[in-house]
Automatic annotation (TrEMBL), chains A, B:
CDD domains: CofD_like (cd07186). InterPro entries: CofD (IPR002882), CofD-like_dom_sf (IPR038136), FbiA/CofD (IPR010115). One of its GO terms (molecular function) is transferase activity. The keyword Transferase applies. This is 2-phospho-L-lactate transferase. Keywords: Magnesium, Transferase. NCBIfam families: F420_cofD. The keyword Chloroplast does not apply. The lineage of its organism: Bacteria, Bacillati, Actinomycetota, Actinomycetes, Streptosporangiales. It comes from Streptomonospora halophila.
Length: 324, 324
């Protein structure tokens, strides 16, 4: 059984933990082909203080590898912020990024390997050698793609900021007029991405942000086309008209999509999406050409999340059989 | 009164603290010309993990700026080592360098400014904007000079390692066959260095390592010549045949100089050195052409250190008057 999961940060990582549990995947599949391949969003990546920071890849790696801060869902457990405080004492900008000391080491290793010429995919593999997340983590691309957000400026014009600045510094409170994946057009999928999709028994879209996480993965030329040939079942990140967590509504608004389970499925479209899981609160949501099932979608604990993963796998198997 | 002090790390920094006390220099001479200019050794500098580390400049800056770990004499007070431990967990080498979290921020700022094209002298000034050491800290040069130590290898030949590797990793226990300032020949003094020496009422050599600290400063073309024209009084780093602290004897041995107050003065030579302070234990040490005075030389507290600084200033004034 080979499963591919395009993923963002917290929602993706928690879904993956449930999926691993459901499939009985251990922490260290040395010597065997990993059952699960993650295609991680890198559009959130940012270079600060000479460090290369990949928030979504790290959230997946830390969560599956046992290093995550469970309460906040990102960053390392037992984290301190000495380096960040000292940088601020020197007057270094920006001060709004939550850079933990343990995290700094990860970014130093990554920045050093990249400066030495290693592609991000090789760096990610090296970092996972320590974390042993029990699945293969591929960045969506080795090329530099950065999500920028277009905002109104004070002079009545427009200005663009890095996604992280909008998301963290402004808490997505400034209206986003456009969300742009800078560099996406010219990017190529990282080694293994298209092959993994082609060989997948199922592709599951976790309840990650459909615009800046999954949307970013889809923006890499060739990825959407490959996914359209696969059996894809998605888990709605919207329950009862609101994001389960995070500020996905602000992103959906920016691209003119309503914040509803149905509208997100329509946005993905029936070419991409074969099946769609919605919460019981959204029972009755229907989209032409997409098989919709409803069940409890809150990932309240690993057991609840495993049940969601099971439902997604079952629907994918059912749809695949219908196709054959 | 203008004083110039070529300095290494701990010994130099502690001497400077006594000198400041003696001269009544506060922590923040904003708006006035600093009375003391330090010419800091940069031969110990090393790049690790993409960070630019200047141990001697930082020891001076932290000590005079109130951030030093008093007990060990180097590094920051209230320091933690999370980044270092995490780098080791990733398998990053080397693991022998004592890289503290607070210190990491200093090195990030420096590396970032240097990557942006600022010379080390400008970076040092920017860092001192935070620390306000109450004196002007100049690196000896903006060029890259690295002290390397030639050791025996196992095959009967020779190998060279960075000074830090010999000093910290091997605790200077491997016999040094040669000590080489790589890049020194082609270096030029940092802006302000020669001017400060020319305008100095006195140049004081603190009890820093005569080989790898003061020797390194002297190796920058033009510096020794300028010092030979100035009134220079040195404080012996050797008391009763042993270094006051550190492993200066291992360095002296490498260049064939006996570990004694007299031998170090002879090594500096009467062209450079006008006066020489030795401890009472070395009373009677005499060197042709150098005025030797004996007094208690242990820098046991700021008061004792201020008395040493006073004696050095008095001797310099006396010698300058004789010259005139």
């Amino acid at each position: 059984m080979r499963i591919v999961v395009p993923a963002g940060g917290i929602g993706g990582a928690r879904f993956l933990r449930g999926l691993k549990k459901e499939l009985g995947v251990g922490s260290d599949p040395v010597g065997e082909e990993p059952a699960i391949t993650v295609i991680g969003n890198t559009g959130d990546d940012i270079t600060l203080f000479g460090l290369r920071i990949c928030p979504d890849l790290d959230t997946v790696m830390y969560t599956l590898g046992g290093g995550i801060n469970e309460e906040q869902g990102w960053g390392r457990a037992d984290e301190s912020f000495t380096v960040k405080e000292e940088l601020a004492a020197y007057g270094m900008q920006p001060t709004w990024f939550g850079l933990g000391d343990r995290d700094v080491a990860t970014h130093i290793v990554r920045a050093q390997m990249m400066a030495a010429g290693y592609p991000l995919s090789a760096v990610t593999e090296a970092l996972c050698d320590r974390w042993r997340p029990g699945l293969r983590v591929l960045p969506m691309t080795d090329d530099r793609v950065e999500t920028h957000v277009v905002l109104d400026d004070e002079a009545g014009g427009r200005r663009a900021v890095h996604f992280q600045e909008w998301w963290i510094r402004h808490r997505a409170a400034l209206p986003a007029r456009e969300i742009v994946g800078v560099g996406a057009e010219d990017a190529t999928p990282a080694p293994g991405v298209l092959e993994a999709i082609e060989q997948a028994d199922a592709v599951l879209l976790p309840p990650s942000n459909p615009v800046v996480s999954i949307g970013s993965v889809l923006s890499v030329p060739g990825v959407r086309e490959a996914l359209e040939r696969a059996t894809v079942v998605g888990v709605s990140p919207i329950i009862g008209g609101a994001p389960v967590r995070g500020m996905a509504d602000a992103c959906l608004q920016a691209i003119g999509v309503e914040t509803s389970a149905r509208a997100v499925a329509e946005h993905y479209g029936p070419e991409l999406l074969d099946g769609w899981l919605v919460d019981e609160a959204d029972e009755g949501a229907a989209v032409d050409g997409i098989a919709v099932r409803s069940l409890p979608l809150y990932m309240s604990d690993p057991e609840a999340t495993a049940a969601i993963a099971r439902a997604a796998l079952d629907l994918a198997a059912e749809l695949k059989e219908q196709r054959a």
